[in-house]
Write a structure and sequence with these properties.
The complex is a heterodimer of chains A (135) and B (545). With 135 residues, chain A is of the alpha/beta class. Chain A is built from 5 helices and 5 strands; from the N terminus they run E-H-E-H-E-H-E-H-E-H. The chains are: A alpha/beta (135), B alpha/beta (545). The interface between A and B is large, with 36 and 50 residues.
Chain lengths: 135, 545
């Protein structure tokens, strides 16, 4: 079955180069990719994740607002009973990784991640969830 | 008989005032101000391929203009004073995301973004604190703001006049380049045509009221950062510039009244010679089009002057110290290419806003180029190189082809071509195609980036000491805003809102005077923008991959 991915820009950050490159990379790897467009809220992303019935969500954050906004997206999803894994990419300093993981993020992709790394990271995030469901 | 380009250059050079430094090599060989033949191109002589001025850096080094902004206005004011103390001679203001989108710091959408990517400016009070103790008639100020450029300029004028500097003495630059926002930077608010009305109002107002002010900084920087090629950066930037010329001419302004105050902003990327060729081709094309197509008779309108910034996207999060080397090479290309001002990125900017130490090293990089290497002694030192001349011609040919396409899209109007190309997603698609192509060349190993896909030893060392914007700073800004709301006269605010709304509804009126009055009434940026938004509507981009 084709993997379905939602990629989203939350908040006010207009930098969309990274998310578009990642979207095409995942599409080239055989996934079905839905892009929300800019200026989404945590609630609008959660709604889209459920409506589109995707297997994984990718958030692109380059404005430094990740520690505030990413936990809100995860919470909005979990509040709706949605346990789809969340992967974050962008300008994320190492020191913030632990806090994002704690907030329920499955994986973080920093600057310079290769296409191969992006694809395997998304597959692993989906896989880990399947493991949990089977257990 | 007309005199030769060399004679013309000599005449202009002789009239230039020079810096008091010995123009010779380290071992004492005296250097000419420029090298060429009797018939070659010369700096300061049309079409200005080799530079806008005859004497270039012999008269004045480029302005070392460091971009800064974070936290509250008071935080950034302290950084500005450091920059001036360290020898920076121009200021450049980075605004945070809410300000760039015209939202107040207490707007629900602003949560987590206040003061992070730049300074938060909500009202004239913040603007006053931002420039407190800085003499705005002696230091020039650049403001990177686009959708809310007109309201921000209004606040700037109002606070400067309150501090005793009349607007006709203010020196600086407003980015005010909305077209590239839709194409690349994506911090848009109103639809394209309504946004262009605000650009028009700023050009018209500054042309008549502020003789030392640059009304638009036509910016290729963000187009390149979003992934375009060098030729696309060159072509799209010039196309946008021509569109603003057509816009102002349609508003009844004489081209030579406003065009001398248009300036440019280009990327200084890592492909050394291609960047230099890009700047040279840009100057030649602008001169030709302004004269031939737009009927300019004043050479000042035809001289392209530009600010450059080293390429943010070329920085790596791996082995961050290597970024100092990249930035130095890019800065060298900008200066060999004849930039009028320059910002050098800090080594830690692939991860965060720069620390004070990293920003100082970036400024020092420019000072080494300016004062130690002697590269500023000779104008356009690469002019006449067979390679660089051919690459310049090739950049010109590629840009002309793209300009022709955009002109066709607008049925002969560059203004319509740019707006139509935005509405049809043409620019956006081209830029993301190029970005993807570049990424693919990295992934298949065709392109090497040190620390990213080769030479990885040392990648496990992590950057220490990154600048942290705290949640406390965000709370502090919201408290500052609340104090402004509590102290102001609600009746004046309401009167300003009504005047602004009525003026916005009249497409022939200029919005600057009511915006300045609104700033003085302590109307917030968010209030001004939402008032304009009720008349102008909002732009929503159709998402595409």
């Amino acid at each position: 079955m084709t993997l379905r991915v939602l990629v989203a820009k939350v908040g006010l950050d207009g930098h969309d180069r990274g998310i578009k490159v990642v979207a095409r990379t995942l599409r080239d790897a055989g996934m079905e990719v839905i892009y929300t467009g800019l200026f989404q809220t945590p609630e609008s992303v959660a709604t889209a994740v459920i409506d589109e019935d995707v297997d994984v969500v990718g958030l692109s954050m380059l404005s430094g607002a990740h520690l505030t906004l990413v936990p809100l997206v995860v919470k909005a999803m979990r509040d709706r009973g949605c346990d789809v894994p969340v992967v974050v990419g962008g300008i994320i300093p190492d020191r913030d990784m632990a806090e994002l993981r704690q907030a329920g993020v499955a994986a973080v992709l920093g600057p310079g991640a290769s296409a191969e790394t992006v694809v395997s990271c998304v597959l692993a995030a989906v896989g880990s969830r399947d493991d949990v469901q089977q257990a | 008989m007309g005199c030769s380009p060399r004679d013309e250059w000599l005449k202009r050079f002789a009239a230039s005032r020079l810096r008091d430094v010995p123009f010779r090599t380290m071992s004492g060989i005296p250097l000419e101000p420029v090298y060429g033949t009797a018939e070659s191109e010369y700096p300061g002589v049309w079409p200005f391929t080799r530079g806008p001025y005859a004497s270039m850096y012999r008269s004045k080094l480029w302005t070392m203009r460091m971009f800064a902004g974070f936290g509250t206005a008071e935080d950034t004011n302290a950084r500005f004073r450091d920059i001036i103390k360290a020898g920076g001679d121009g200021l450049s203001t980075a605004f945070d995301m809410p300000t760039l989108l015209g939202l107040d710091s207490d707007d629900p959408m602003s949560l987590g973004e206040v003061g992070r990517c730049g300074v938060a400016i909500d009202s004239i009070t913040d603007m006053g604190d931002l420039f407190a103790g800085i003499d705005l008639s002696s230091i020039s100020t650049s403001m990177t703001i686009n959708s809310p450029a007109a309201p921000i300029l209004a606040m700037f004028i109002a606070q400067a006049e309150d501090a005793g500097v009349p607007r006709n003495l203010l020196r600086g630059t407003l980015q005010n380049d909305i077209l590239k926002e839709f194409q690349a930077q994506k911090e848009f608010v109103f639809p394209p045509r309504q946004s262009m009305r605000l650009v028009r109002d700023v050009i018209a107002y500054t042309t008549s009221e502020m003789p030392y002010w640059h009304s638009v900084s036509i910016s290729g920087y963000h187009i390149r950062e979003a992934g375009s090629t060098a030729a696309e950066e060159l072509a799209f930037t010039l196309a946008n510039g021509f569109a603003y010329v057509e816009l102002a001419k349609q508003a009844g302004l004489d081209v030579d009244a406003f065009a001398p105050r248009l300036s440019f902003f280009f990327n200084a990327h890592i492909d050394f010679f291609e960047e230099i060729a890009k700047y040279r081709a840009a100057r030649r094309l602008w001169a030709q089009w302004l004269k031939v197509r737009y009927g300019s008779t004043d050479e000042r309108s035809q001289q392209l002057r530009f600010h450059a910034q080293t390429a943010g996207v070329s920085l790596t999060a791996q082995q961050v110290e290597v970024n100092v080397v990249r930035t130095a090479l890019e800065a060298l290309a900008a200066t060999l290419g004849g930039a009028q001002s320059l910002h050098t990125n800090s080594m830690d900017e692939a991860l965060a806003l720069p620390t004070e130490r990293a920003a100082r090293i970036a400024l020092r990089t420019q000072q080494v180029i300016a004062h130690e290497t002697n590269v500023a002694h000779v104008a356009d030192p690469l002019g006449g190189s067979w390679f660089v001349e051919e690459l310049t011609d090739e950049m010109q040919r590629r840009a002309e082809q793209l300009l022709g396409t955009i002109l066709d899209m607008g049925s002969g109007s560059m203004l319509e071509g740019c707006i139509g190309g935005i509405e049809d997603n043409w620019f956006q698609s081209r830029i993301s195609d190029s970005a993807f192509e570049l990424e693919r060349s990295l992934n298949n190993g065709e392109r090497i980036v040190v620390g990213v896909n080769d030479f990885l030893e040392g990648n496990d060392e992590h950057a220490e000491d990154l600048l942290r914007i705290t949640r406390e700073q965000e709370d502090r800004q919201r408290a500052r805003l609340q104090a402004v709301r509590d102290a102001r006269d609600a009746v004046r605010v309401e009167a300003s809102r009504r005047e602004l709304s009525e003026t916005a509804a009249d497409p022939t009126a200029n919005l600057m005077p009511p915006l300045i009055r609104a700033a003085r009434a302590h109307m917030t940026l968010g209030e001004m923008m939402s008032t304009l938004g009720t008349v102008f509507g909002r732009h929503v981009e159709t998402p595409s991959i």
